[in-house]
Amino acid sequence: MNKVITRLGLLAVVMLLSSFQNTSHQTASGDSSPIAGTPVKTDITLPAISNIPAYQHGEELNYNVHYGFITGGAASITLKQEAIDGNDVFHAVIQGRTTGLAQKLFKVLDIYESYFDVKTSLPIKSVRNVREGNYRSYNEVTFDRKNNTVNSQKSGVHKVPANLHDMVSAFFFIRRIDFSKYKGGEIINVNTFFGDELFPFYVVFKGRETVKTDLGKFKCLKFVPIVEPGRIFKERDDMTFWFSDDNNKVPVRIKFDILVGSFKCDLTSFKNTKFNMSSLVSNN
User: Which of the four pLDDT bands, split at 50, 70 and 90, describes residue 2?
Assistant: First the structure.
């Protein structure tokens, strides 16, 4: 049971990365249909993004993963600006790991990387490096925008839709959307390539809330990804995440309500954000 709890808790750490394999599609009218077996839409219009990214070189975010009062994991999100073949890219690294007693019971170190274009946020290369107990998995995927293909070290070349994201770049892409005119109920659709498969990522903007953390109270934007009830989740809205309601749109909290309990991943520190964290309205 400890192994199961630890691994599920770490899913919250890597946020949008490994928990969307069983997501399902909700239309604007509220109707739903499973993603499994549903063709990926190739005519998705991505939301407009700001010309100025909400992040910069050197940004560092740190998190703790809680199961009730137990802290069993930690996470970090770091960002650097680099160059690949003469192109300016951001290199994002999301790392999740077990800590303390959980580390002794079941060691987890999951690292997800994305190299994405500074202007468009579209990825050029993604890396998945998973170590969970005795399990190991490593893969690199490169994106060919001219020919709309991806090349996976594990499965070879795939024909894909235009404007395809990996899960890490999709996360940073959402941070660049201007939500000032969003009222609640809007659905963001992004095609992604993850686990050597194409699948659409659907997330509903639910409005604005104030979230209390150990750092203080944050004004936040609230989002609910569409998930598939069953093996892990009870309901379609059992995963929620909150971004700071300021120009940074930093992830403040991720919460999973699953069959074995509730997991929470909270921001514990932030460094070198591009803008002032004006959403932090009171400090503890």
Answer: very low
Cα 192 to chain centroid distance, Å, stands at 11
Residues 6 or more apart whose Cβ sits within 8 Å of residue 283 = 215, 216
Q: How many CA atoms lie within 13 A of 223 on its CB side?
A: 27
Sign, CA dihedral 175-177-182-185, equals: negative
Pair of tokens at residue 120: 């468009």
CB proximity list for 115: less than 8 A, separation 6 or greater? 82, 84, 89, 90, 91, 123, 124, 125, 126
In whole angstroms, what is the distance from residue 167 CA to residue 141 CA?
12
Q: Dihedral of the CA atoms 242, 53, 269, 226 (nearest 10)?
A: 20
Q: Which residues is 131 bridged to in the sheet?
A: 109, 136
- Contact call for residues 20 and 194 (beta carbons, < 8 A): yes
The residue assigned the tokens 């400890």 is 2
Q: Which amino acid is at 46?
A: L
Contacts of 255 (CB under 8 A, 6+ apart): 12, 239, 240, 241, 262, 263, 264, 265
Which residues are paired to 260 by β-bridges?
none
pLDDT, tens only, 239-269: 899 999 999 999 999 988 765 567 889 999 9
Residue 213: φ, ψ to 5°: -130, 175
Considering the entire predicted model, what is its pTM?
Answer: 0.83
Helix (H) or strand (E) holding 50: none
Domain that holds residue 172: 2-283
Residue for token pair 């069953």: 230
Structural domain count, the chain: 1
Q: How far apart are CA 188 and CA 221, in angstroms?
A: 14
165: closest CA among 121, 105, 100?
121
Handedness of CA 207, 209, 92, 57 (dihedral sign): positive
